[in-house]
Specification:
Layout (H helix, E strand, L loop, with lengths): L15 H9 L5 E8 L1 E6 L2 E10 L2 E10 H10 L3 H11 L7 E4 L5 E9 L3 E2 L4 E2 L2 E8 H10 L12 E5 L2 E8 L10 E7 L7 E7 L4 H5 L2 H6 L4 E4 L5 H23 L6
Helix pairs in contact: 4-7
């Protein structure tokens, strides 16, 4: 569908669907544990679309995301903010708008997203590839499920740390050495990434209790931002929800990764 513009500056960024398809192939599933939905357009009774700016490996892209009626209804059902829920339903039922559109940039909905690149589309101004959502769930519903049902972690006890980017887990780590006396935040670990099965990176990483502590550290200011590790026991409920889902989705790959280094997980 034609992209709908809620922020003019967004269109200075390259198209994420095109980049992702050319880099990883059109059949590669894209997973995000912290996708932010800022707007929704109702294309027709069975198709909805949204655009957002995403940061992927340090570069910003414009992402177009399409999803069907079933996922839209699930989103509305899971949305805890009653005022936003009412507003979205009202704006998208406005028959005077074509397409009906609602923007909630100041109060984005955070999602666990699984999507694949769709078919290329073009108009007189641009060509792009929208992503098609395969599934998503609101972070709040996942977090509540974990807290309310008192689920026990399925992350193996051998995993001591979770490697983070901002507030999102990107890898799991097993401690393999003692912290350095001259800097208690440095710890030696094996780190395995879900998107690189069979590969583990061994070396020192910085560990903090949370994002705030990491951002207030000297090393963060020196390097201008970085990946860092959080001890599993210090994960907040939202971090923990991401990490548990990432382990569930990638358990075989992660076990194979650690196994290649002779680490039983």
């Amino acid at each position: 569908m034609k992209k709908h513009n809620n922020i003019q500056e967004a269109f200075i960024y390259p198209d994420f669907g095109t980049f992702y398809s050319e880099t990883f192939g059109s059949e590669t599933v894209y997973n995000s544990y912290s996708h932010r939905l800022h707007n929704i357009a109702k294309v027709d009774e069975s198709l909805f679309s949204s655009i957002s700016i995403v940061d992927f490996e340090g570069q910003k892209f414009l992402m177009s995301l399409d999803f069907g009626l079933k996922l839209y209804e699930q989103l509305i059902k899971e949305l805890e903010n009653k005022e936003l829920k009412k507003r979205i339903k009202k704006e998208l039922s406005d028959k005077n708008k074509s397409p009906a559109y609602v923007d909630f940039t100041d109060n984005p909905i955070e999602l666990i997203l699984e999507a694949k690149a769709g078919k290329p589309e073009s108009n007189q101004n641009e060509s792009y590839i929208p992503f098609v959502a395969l599934s998503f769930s609101s972070i709040s519903s996942i977090k509540d499920s974990i807290e309310n049902e008192c689920l026990n972690t399925i992350i193996p006890p051998q995993i001591t740390h979770v490697l983070m980017t901002n507030n999102t887990p990107i890898a799991f780590a097993v401690q393999r050495g003692k912290q350095k006396k001259n800097d208690p935040n440095i710890i030696n670990v094996y780190v395995c990434y879900p998107d690189m099965p069979g590969f583990c990176d061994h070396g020192p990483v910085y560990t903090f209790k949370n994002l705030k502590e990491a951002k207030n550290s000297f090393i963060w200011k020196l390097l201008g931002g970085m990946d860092y590790a959080i001890p599993v026991n210090d994960l907040g409920s939202e971090n923990y929800a991401y990490a548990e889902l990432m382990w569930q989705d990638n358990e075989d790959k992660l076990r194979a990764g650690f196994g290649s280094k002779g680490i039983k997980v």
